[in-house]
Amino acid sequence: MRTGKRGLTTAAVTVVCAVTVLAAPGTAFADPNPTPSRTSTPTAPPAASTKDLEAVRKKLDKLYRAAASATEEYNAAEEKAREQSAEIVELAKKIVKGQEKLDRLQDRAGAAARSQYRTGGLPDEAKLMLSDDPEEFLDGTGRVLQGQRATKGLIGELTRTQQDLKTYAADAEAQWTKLEANRKAKAAAQKKVEKQIAAAEKLESELEKEEKERLERLEREAAAKAQTAWLGSGILKDLKGGATEQGRKAVEYATAQIGKPYQWGAEGPKSYDCSGLTSQAWASAGRALPRTSQAQWKQLRQVDVTEMRPGDLIIYFDDASHVGMYVGDGKMVHAPRPGRSVTIAGAGSMPILGVVRPDA
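The chain above was modelled as a monomer; its predicted structure follows.
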């Protein structure tokens, strides 16, 4: 193993990922040919039309969707790195204990070898003839045989301990390799997140105040339209089942976070991303969940939408890149995206991939 046993333990808990923030160009929506006034003072660019703002909304939605996917990649890499770091620490502890055990066994083996050397030399027949008490000699011979068997067992234990140490060292080396790979994946995902968010923020920054307000109205209208269509399917009539005690606690936690800002990669208590909110809400109810929306979708029990009850998680989009928690009455609580806060929204305001149930 290339690192010392105590160096390994220290390194296992001090892994730090350095990241670089990338910026991406945005798109301006100013009139390319502004007409100067009679005083030759440049006029402000005209407000974007509804059609232009709808294009902006769709572009922002695309950018933030890409950022959400990259955020879940980051969260997955972070979770794996955390698990691997913990595994390395445990392996380091085993290596330290194994080395201490090996040292003790080697001391015992050395003592046995020295004792055998002091009593060795003459063959047993000669020792019997020269002995003043043959019976005592025979008793001693039995003890020697026992000692030889014990020595053989000691050698076997030494061999096994040495092999265990080699195995622990090889496992630690493999975990270090995986940890490094996940560190790189985490850094790459962070760059992707920040690139998409920077592009979206630049695009929004180029809008006038009135345009930003209109853009928010368009976002609300698009969500309301999707929610209306979802409710129009008659889904609420089919929904049945009340919240369990755990589900109620999870809903209480999630709704208590309303108004706190979205922050990618955050798990509270001051800010959250979508899966950070759902995982922490269920943790407060005593149920540990996978960290990412993709893992929540894959690992938790899937239920039909018509079986949905408060506390269940609604997974959105084909790539399972967003998650919210159903709170009843056709609504869910979620952490939407950068620039927004934890809020209540229509459960059908985004394309639903499926529903999963954390509790029994």
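The first strand starts at residue 301 and ends at 303.
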